Amino acid sequence: MERLLVLVRHGQSDWNLKNLFTGWKDPDLTEQGVREATSAGRRLKALGLTFDIAFTSVLTRAQHTNSLILGEIGQPDLPTIRDQALNERDYGDLSGLNKDDARARWGEEQVHIWRRSYDIAPPGGESLKDTAARVLPYYITEILPRVLRGERVLVAAHGNSLRALVMVLDRLTPATIPSMELATGVPLVYRLKADSTVESKEVLEG
Question: Which residue out of 10, 36, 126, 158 is catalytically annotated?
Fold first, then answer.
């Protein structure tokens, strides 16, 4: 039985390009982001991978990435479940701010703590720990059972919602996960064992 789980962070968004905190705000992909998502689909197609179901967030940039990937692999009508449990981390009062402006306002060290600590949230927002607290139960109840039944699952989501999953899959700790970056549009291909641990992981870089 092939227990396939593929995670893809959305391609570059308009606010990524403008160096803005995005969170639950809803900009679309840039032209580069479209190319990244399309390229991700081509790399998956080159491996002969197809899927039984896809999951994504309720945010446009993740949904657009998902659609572009499915178009490239010839499955444009694949059933897709959208849920805000997979949304990006909510940056609260930082959302929409230029990252340099935020550093000027609160200081380099404070902004770094908000961005990179595991359990310290920005004002009005979520920490990575908070993000994991909504992503992981959803993964355990909705996504993982399908993978363990042998369904091939694609998840197109966000840097922080996917980091929460990678933390569990790769057995990372709260001390090490904050420094881990997920590149936009780079599929992570996991194959799981029957006990839900990782049998193999492949990073499909361009």
Answer: 10
Please tell me whether 119 is known to bind a ligand. Answer: no
- How far apart are the C-alpha atoms of 16 and 20, rounded to whole Å? 6
Please give the angle made by the CA atoms of 96, 161 and 130, to the nearest 5 degrees: 80
- For the entire predicted model, the pTM comes to 0.96
Domains of the chain: 4-153+165-203 (3.40.50.1240)
173 in a known ligand binding site: no
The active-site residue, picked from 64, 88, 126, 158, is 88
**Integer Cα distance of 93 and 174 in angstroms:** 24
Residue 61, annotated ligand binder? yes
Q: How far apart are CA 128 and CA 37, in angstroms?
A: 24
Asked if 72 is an active-site residue, the reply is no
Q: What whole-number distance in Å separates Cα of residue 154 and Cα of residue 62?
A: 12
Q: Is 36 a catalytic residue?
A: no
Task: Encode the chain (206 residues) as per-residue pLDDT tens digits.
Answer: 899 999 999 999 999 999 999 999 999 999 999 999 999 999 999 999 999 999 999 999 999 999 999 999 999 999 999 999 999 999 999 999 999 999 999 999 999 999 888 999 999 999 999 999 999 999 999 999 999 999 999 999 999 999 999 999 999 998 888 778 899 999 999 999 999 999 999 999 97
